[in-house]
Amino acid sequence: MTMAAPDLKTMPIRKALTLLLIMVLPRTASAEPLLRPLTMDTISSFFRTANLRLLNLGSALMQGPVEGVQIWHNLTTFMASREGIVTLAYALIVGMIGTGAEWFYWTYAAPARRAIDAMDIRNPRLGRRLAFRRTALFLCGFLLFSVATLGSLAFFDWPEGAEHLVLAPIMIILLTRFMWIVADSLFAPGHHQRRLLDVGPAEARIWVTVIVGLTILVGGATIYAPLIQQAGSANAAEALQTVSVTLSAILIIVAVSASRKHRDSTQARTMPRSTLPVPFLRMAIIIAIYGLWLFSGDVIATLAVIIVLAVSSQLHLHRAVMFLWSDEPDHDLTEPHAHGQETGTAQVDSLAPSIILTLARYVFVIIAIIAAILALDIPMMEMATSSNPLRQFIVRLSEIALIALISHIVWLAVRLPIDHRLQKLIATSDPHGSVNANARLLTLLPLMRTTGGVILLAFFVISSLWSLGIDIGPLLAGAGVFGLALGFGAQALVRDVISGIFYLVEDVFRIGEYIEAGTHAKGTVERITLRTVALRHQNGPLYFVPYGSLGSIKNNSRDWSIDKFNIPLPVTTDSEQVRKIIKKVGEQMMQDPEIGSKIVEPLKSKVYGIEPGIKIFRCKFRCAPGNQFEIRVQAYKRIEAALRDAGIPFAAGTQVLMPLPPHGQMPTTTSTPAEASPSTP
């Protein structure tokens, strides 16, 4: 009797999570789950299994050489027979066909490769573009060789089992050549201008050697071990795998040590020492993975390798992508991190590298997940239709990952152009200058960025809940009811938000403008949020005023400003002479290179009033908003100097008592009361 698997869509979330903890993806023949509760029996069983595996490895290492000698004897006997000679002849023909096809390709592609090698590389981006072209040339030649070699195998009638003897070395050659092309393109030893990774020449040579060596060791063991086991020599196959894995671990340890020594020698004077023992951690991880393979076998060790590679790629992807997009001159790669800087960490103000970095991160994670599924021998085509709750949960997690990728790319497409535009506006704007048309962008762009982020976050949350099988209908209904209750209970908040929306839509004020609202709030607009506006008072305090409290707005920073000021002169001053002097001062100010461009209408004056002994002249000019104070100071200085040159004093500020002159005569004295009759003590 079988039990139907429960459906996550109709199951309470707590119960679903409980089942996820007790059920696993694959099951063994005995229907026992792969993940078991951690008990003393489990630990003991693990150690017994590890001990048995070590005994089997020891037995294989002891008996493997004997079986290997027997395999070699059988192989030499076969090659001396008629079937062996035919196999060797067919293999030589296959090799000649593949080599000839690639030689024919290089007769036409070699000039392009030589042109790339001889080209003068003027900047790093050109060098990396040429590196991709060179890699494409090599990959095309490799693809032609592979197709010709593998395709020609089908034209021959091979002796029974002989095609495996030919196919195995061909696969090793193809795999090694492909990995060498990839490694040579990434590290480019000897050609630092075409290097796609930020490493030194010594490290580049080390890692190319390591990649090729690991390909030969691991690939050879992976390909030949099943053939040897089919030949009836299981101990020899196990011994080959053991030797291959051991030599691979030793090779990696030696490479990491040599690379660390070279990096330490080049960074000793430029880079601060890390607080973590990174070299020790690397060695410990390598030894731990090798120990897992010894005690637990291929599956767990492969999963550990996949996890380490996935984490390492995530840590280094940012540096690699930004290094590819960096257009700075190449530094001396014998000291790749000179002056304490990493080239790959330089920020690049562009949308393309950020999107590519995001895609690369997700691609590497997806590759790691697929590799783990293959290592666990899980049928991928059955994942979507499986009734196992955990497999369904993994499929839904994949959907959420895809939604997260799309949301993140859209967020980058929204955020990065806005940030780039804001940086340009802030760099070109003068914080002490007048407010220009860019102030509206400085006001609206941050709000657009915040709004876009909130919308994308809400879309991601709702879509993720839907992918997990959670009914979002009641959630949306509850959110609507909550929003309605919030609207009734927080009327002031709603009023502030709505008022702010209309203020911004109607372009009432912008960042950097000086406004006056009501009787209390006035100052320069520094920051705008969804509910409040921050005003910097001229005395320094920063006021946060809700939009609903602003009321009518007086904007002192729009279009133009008119400034008026009075000049008191003696009542005997000739008004026409003063008007002409001030008009001439205004014309001179219009021609001044510093303040002339800020004046809209020149300085003018007229008689504003006459008081006892004082004649008041009203001066007026029109200028760009915010510049009236500076222009007024200049006007005072120039008017004072012009009046001094004309011999016209300013009024004394006291009333003048003058005797009545005879008919038709002007008064001759202008003495003050203090001068006419001094006070007596």
UniProtKB/TrEMBL annotation:
The entry's keywords: Cell membrane, Membrane, Transmembrane, Transmembrane helix
Subcellular localization: Cell membrane
Coiled-coil positions: none
Chain segments carrying region Disordered: 660-681
Organism domain of life: Bacteria
TM stretches of this protein: 85-106, 135-156, 162-183, 204-227, 239-256, 299-317, 359-381, 393-414, 450-469, 475-494
InterPro entries noted in UniProt: LSM_dom_sf, MS_channel_1st, MS_channel_C, MscS_beta-dom_sf, MscS_channel_2nd, MscS_channel_C_sf, MscS_channel_TM-2, YbiO_bact
A single Gene Ontology CC term: plasma membrane
Protein topology in the membrane: Multi-pass membrane protein
One annotated GO molecular function: mechanosensitive monoatomic ion channel activity
Segments of skewed composition (Low complexity): 667-681
Residue ranges constituting the Mechanosensitive ion channel transmembrane helices 2/3 domain according to the UniProt record: 454-491
Family: Belongs to the MscS (TC 1.A.23) family.
Protein name: Mechanosensitive ion channel
High-level lineage: Bacteria, Pseudomonadati, Pseudomonadota, Alphaproteobacteria, Hyphomicrobiales
